Inverse folding.
C-alpha cells in the first residue's frame, strides 16, 4: 500500500501530547480521525504513524508523520477535517519500507526562553552546553520512561540571543522524556550564576545531582522544529497560509490578553489596602 511522509504543524496547548491515548484528546488521535473521514476508511496508529512523541503543551512545526493509504493523499482535503491548531503542510510519496521512528537522520528542537527579568551569561551557557554534546547517559537530564535507555546522542546544542529571549537549538538522533527542557533549566541556572559551569560535565558523569533534581523548563517554550530526512517535500501554499492566519490570530489574542491582565493587576493593587 502506498506510503506518504507528511510534515505536521500543531500547537500542543489543547492536547494531551502528540501520541494517541484512548479516551484523551491527542494530536495523533485527531489526525487519525481526519484521515479516516477524508478517505472514508478507518485508520489507526499503524497506518498513521509519528516519528516521535511530544509532551502535553509542546508545539511542532516539522513533526514527521507517515500515512499509508490507497487513495492519493490530498493534505488540503485532510486539513478540512482537522482543527485549526493542527495542519498538514507538506508531503511526498516514499518507500513503503520507511520507518518514521528509526529511518530519520536527526531531530531538531528549539526552545524560546524569556529572560526579561534576568541577564544570563551567554558565554557561560555556551561553554556548559558543549559539555552536554555527544553520546551520553542523560539520566539526570531526563525523566525515567519505563525500560527505555537513558543514552542519547546530541551532535550539537547552540544558543543565540534575540533581545530578551535566548533561543536554544538542540539536535539529536534521539531524545529522552523532558530532556530538552531539563537541559534548558540547567544551562539557565548556570547562566544566572546559580550553578557553577563545571556542574554540567558532572551531571553527565552522574557525579553531581542538585538537591531535588533538575526541574524541566515550562513546556510552552518548546517546539519540534524538524525531523530531518534525506528526501524533499511538496509544500501546500494553502496550508502555510492557514498556519500563518492561526498564528496571527493567536498573537492578537495574547496581546489583548496581556494588556487586560496588566490592567487587572494594577486594579487589584488599588484594593490591597483598606479604606479608612
Amino acid at each position: 500500500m502506498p506510503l506518504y511522509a507528511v510534515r505536521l504543524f500543531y500547537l500542543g496547548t489543547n492536547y494531551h501530547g502528540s501520541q494517541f491515548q484512548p479516551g484523551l484528546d491527542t494530536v495523533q488521535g485527531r489526525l487519525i480521525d481526519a484521515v479516516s473521514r477524508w478517505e472514508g476508511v478507518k485508520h489507526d496508529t499503524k497506518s498513521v504513524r509519528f516519528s516521535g512523541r511530544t509532551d502535553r503543551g509542546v508545539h511542532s512545526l516539522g513533526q514527521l508523520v507517515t500515512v499509508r493509504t490507497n487513495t492519493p493523499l490530498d493534505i488540503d482535503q485532510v486539513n478540512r477535517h482537522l482543527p485549526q491548531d493542527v495542519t498538514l503542510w507538506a508531503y511526498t510519496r516514499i518507500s513503503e519500507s520507511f520507518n518514521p521512528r528509526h529511518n530519520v537522520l536527526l531531530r531538531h528542537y528549539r526552545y524560546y526562553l524569556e529572560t526579561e527579568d534576568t541577564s544570563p551569561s551567554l558565554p557561560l551557557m555556551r561553554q556548559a552546553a558543549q559539555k552536554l554534546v555527544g553520546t551520553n547517559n542523560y539520566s539526570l537530564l531526563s525523566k525515567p520512561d519505563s525500560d527505555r535507555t537513558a543514552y542519547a546522542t546530541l551532535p550539537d546544542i547552540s544558543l543565540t540571543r534575540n533581545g530578551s529571549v535566548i533561543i536554544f537549538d538542540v539536535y539529536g538522533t534521539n531524545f529522552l522524556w523532558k530532556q530538552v527542557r531539563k537541559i534548558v533549566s540547567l544551562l539557565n541556572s548556570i547562566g544566572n550564576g546559580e550553578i557553577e559551569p563545571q556542574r554540567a560535565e558532572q551531571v553527565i558523569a552522574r557525579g553531581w545531582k542538585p538537591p531535588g533534581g533538575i526541574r524541566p523548563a515550562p513546556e510552552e517554550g518548546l517546539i519540534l522544529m524538524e525531523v530531518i530526512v534525506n528526501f524533499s517535500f511538496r509544500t501546500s501554499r494553502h496550508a502555510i497560509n492557514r498556519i500563518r492566519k492561526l498564528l496571527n490570530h493567536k498573537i492578537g489574542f495574547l496581546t489583548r490578553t496581556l494588556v487586560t491582565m496588566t490592567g487587572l493587576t494594577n486594579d487589584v493593587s488599588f484594593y490591597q489596602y483598606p479604606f479608612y
Observations:
- The first helix runs from residue 27 to 39.
- The chain has a mean pLDDT of 94.
- Helices lie at 27-39, 75-79, 122-130, 179-191, 199-204, 237-270.
- Residues 128 and 197 are 6 Å apart (CA to CA).
